[in-house]
Amino acid sequence: MGSLVWFTLLGFLTINSCAGRPHPCKSPPLLQGSLSMIGQSEDFQAIAKFNYDALEQRIHFGEFGYYQNKTFHVDALLLYKEGVMYKINRHNKTCTRKELKSSFHPLKVPHNATLLGQVVLGSMSHHGESLLVNSWAGEIPEHKAKYLLTFTKLGCIPVSCLYNSPKTGGITISFFNNIVGIVDPNVFIPPPYCTTATLEEGSNDFFSIF
Amino acid sequence: MGSLVWFTLLGFLTINSCAGRPHPCKSPPLLQGSLSMIGQSEDFQAIAKFNYDALEQRIHFGEFGYYQNKTFHVDALLLYKEGVMYKINRHNKTCTRKELKSSFHPLKVPHNATLLGQVVLGSMSHHGESLLVNSWAGEIPEHKAKYLLTFTKLGCIPVSCLYNSPKTGGITISFFNNIVGIVDPNVFIPPPYCTTATLEEGSNDFFSIF
Asked: Which interval of the chain is the signal sequence (chains A, B) (predicted)?
């Protein structure tokens, strides 16, 4: 995706003075919420509930989606410390267990991201109608990827992510209904029928669950 | 854009009871702010400041964008009551004046839109980190278009719009830095060199300014 307009925001938006200039932030280590993912083309949409534990480096995803005219459901548990990823079918009580080869990436603004600006979603004209957010842009040269990230100013809660790479195309991710903390830590414990699943070979990372 | 996932939100999101169920709302009649527009394909991005006056049915757009590898700048004034649209070049002090054939559409959720749900952007875990919004989906059969609209629960301020039609492709519009009211009503008065501009023929509507 062309970055011209994103970077034009640098001049367009009101950026804080140096003293109060936002710095790349890291989200709370325990977070749960929901997200929607919409692919640029018509062939991919998904809604997921997630549980995120950066302390123990584990993520749980319960996702429903639509890809190339077919629906899919994914219930995935990624345990980075153990280097294992489970795909769980709770209805059939079956499970696949795969080696998780990528390392854990905490939910944060990359240190080398460029601040586009601080903006208000909604309106500050009346109380309770606004959310102050910081927007950041950057590139990941090894994936030829560009991203635009928006996090709340207070609390560093993710709001949205626009990601574009030749491999994935453009994807818009919106986060909502986030809560700091984990309501039920059992979501990170694989069901009994998972522990007996044979470890399958293959190169797996976060994106392979989709 | 496939609507399957959008409508799945109906079951996925927590919707208020009937008594407190959100109704399609109309934005404040006087509003100014900014918006970004990103086309699904790489060839269109734009940032605009807008002034919106539903009482007098007039809109002013100052927009900078990028389309098919070329930058563009648009300064457009749409006066629906007079049925005229000006494209202004303040640098060269030139102006084009065209007939505006479409009718004024107030900023609102269409009455026949389907409520997807009420969600929190950011997090309610701490004060000042959240924004309560309602999301709506619908179709415009005459344009074969689908849309997903998000407005703040309080105040009915636009937050985002995903629009997809065969004519436009997919477009993501994000609204920010909105203020209820108009800071400078002079933005709705065409500069002197516009009034002498010859009225050009042609079918023009809101989208023709882009």
From this structure: 1-20
